[in-house]
Amino acid sequence: MPTYLELSDILAAKDRIAGTAVRTPLVKLDPARLAAAGFVVPADVPEIWLKDESKQPIGSFKLRGAYNTVAQLPPAALQRGVITYSSGNHAQGVAYAARALGSKAVIVMPDNAPKVKIAATEALGAEIVFVGSASSDRKMKAEELEAAHGYSMIPPYDHPSIIAGQATCGVEILEQLAELTGEAPDDATLVLSPVSGGGLLSGIATGIKLASEAAGHAAPLVYGTEPELAADSEESFRTKTLVEWPAAKTTRTLCDGLRTQSLGVLNFEHILKFVDNIITVNEDDIRSALKVYLKATDIVAEPSGAITLAAALYRSEVLPKAKRIVVVVSGGNLEPSLKETLENEAGAAHV
């Protein structure tokens, strides 16, 4: 039987990361701003709230789990250094945590990682080792260096401390919805999270379900959102069997942070227990959601962070009826060249 996180693990992580990771804003998508920017929202779309993890010091949610994990290492391990494998945002999370705690960070990154994420990781003082584009290549090289140098591995998603750190985002969503709406969020609320290796989705779902149970009310529904071109998680959830897609398929998506070839084992167990569904989104809709952020909000989202809004706006036929939808903007590390292209493209995005 798998060992699941308890609410006490998540609340301990919440205390541990306080002062390093921030309590990010939860803001309502403004229909008036959408209209002013040329977007017409169908009448059947419920109110949409944006959980803006781009406001973390590294521009993404990854700091939560990374700091929660590195902060629990003994002094001797910190002295030897930490290592991870990542396409960018987790790399920055580990580099930031290591610097804050006085440790060396070594990051194995794919050679096709966005330049903005490479530069940000280097700026945090990390040593970067490049490998091919497959997530399996990154993991293998990191394990090789871990064994050779005695570094402590900080996995990007498949670890209880990573899941507990990401789960703090789910607990915050519940707290903020109650504060902003005056209502305890229940199953009339739908929360949409991106999914790749499963750290964020498994954490958010576990945090929301356990905290709601402890408060004695029905929990919001939690759905994962994934690109059609990298839909290994959707297939795993649907078949209840952990599957892996080849890198040649998952690297086709614009969402560089969602190209992982398989869910983590522990993440998958939590997803099966706590997640209500996983749906997919096509590339055109992801691109359109990026334009909505740029032209009708104050948030800059990267493709992986925009996929949830794409699901809320364009996949209503597969979503349950809800009073409100919370979309998690997982990160805002958008490549400047892509940002410029989107801003200059003629015409409004479809809504």
TrEMBL record:
Pfam families: PALP
SUPFAM superfamilies, per database record: Tryptophan synthase beta subunit-like PLP-dependent enzymes (SSF53686)
UniProt entry keywords in alphabetical sequence: Lyase, Pyridoxal phosphate
Gene Ontology biological-process entries: isoleucine biosynthetic process; L-serine catabolic process; L-threonine catabolic process
Domain of life: Bacteria
Domain named Tryptophan synthase beta chain-like PALP: residues: 23-331
Gene3D superfamilies with a match to the protein in the record: 3.40.50.1100
InterPro entries, per database record: Ser/Thr_Dehydratase, TrpB-like_PALP, TrpB-like_PALP_sf
Entry annotated with the keyword Ubl conjugation: no
CDD domains: Thr-dehyd
Cofactor(s) it depends on: pyridoxal 5'-phosphate
Gene Ontology molecular-function annotations: L-serine ammonia-lyase activity; threonine deaminase activity
Signal sequence, renumbered to the chain: none
Homology family: Belongs to the serine/threonine dehydratase family.
Protein name: Threonine dehydratase
Naturally occurring in which organism (per UniProt): Bryocella elongata
